[in-house]
Design brief:
The protein is α+β, with helices and mostly antiparallel strands and about 200 residues long. The chain has five helices and eight strands; from the N terminus they run E-E-H-H-E-E-H-E-H-E-H-E-E. It has one domain: 3-Layer(aba) Sandwich (Aminopeptidase), CATH 3.40.630.30.
Length: about 200
């Protein structure tokens, strides 16, 4: 898929794929594999560190991308990846925090979940998360749209370290048209938006 130029920023969006994997890998490697070597695999079905297989997180993520089982909107500054927003179906991303509490209030599973953001340390507080979220919603629309759910931090306008904002913030999602549904765990919530197909 061709890059999508955003009209309000210097960034472009590309879907995570084998073609763009080297840029994704370079960003992850620059940051130690992201969150202690997770490589953005935690939300996928049980992984190596949970005893499912002997694969390390990098190899596992690359395999999932190759198999079409890992989706993300990759934000590029020129040819360099500077951030991403991970999304996928509940089957692709079944592991969310506070799952017991989430399931207790569940009426119907969404078509898509947005589970994770990451932004290069040199590009933080420059709108990359907003671009990544917009990119993910655009890619979901191109894939047919549907109900999209997110689980952001409800910061209540308090300044929070970026290391705790891997799910984004309630404000970020409100600005993107998501509606608050209910609380989930400490300082997190469930938000939803229906995306029309393109």
């Amino acid at each position: 898929m061709a890059a999508v130029e955003t009209s309000t920023s210097p960034y472009t969006i590309k879907p995570l794929s084998t073609a763009i994997w080297p840029a994704f890998a370079q960003l992850a490697e620059k940051h130690g594999g992201v969150w202690n070597g997770c490589w953005c695999t935690w939300f996928h079905p049980a992984c190596a560190d949970k005893g499912e297989s002997g694969e390390d997180s990098r190899a596992r993520k690359e395999r999932l991308v190759r198999e079409g089982k890992a989706h993300a909107a990759l934000v590029l500054d020129g040819d360099v990846a500077v951030g991403w927003c991970e999304y996928g179906s509940p089957e692709e991303l079944p592991r969310i925090y506070h799952l017991k509490e989430y399931n207790a209030g569940l009426v119907q599973l969404p078509d898509y979940r947005i589970t994770c953001f990451f932004v290069d340390r040199g590009h933080r507080r420059k709108g990359v998360s907003t671009v990544a979220l917009r990119g993910a919603l655009g890619l979901i629309a191109k894939a047919g749209g549907g109900v999209v759910e997110a689980y952001p931090q409800d910061t209540q306008d308090k300044r929070v370290s970026a290391s705790f904002l891997y799910n984004g913030t309630r404000t970020l999602f409100e600005r993107a048209g998501f509606a608050y549904v209910r609380p989930k765990g400490k300082n997190h919530c469930v938000m939803t938006r229906t995306v029309s197909p393109l």
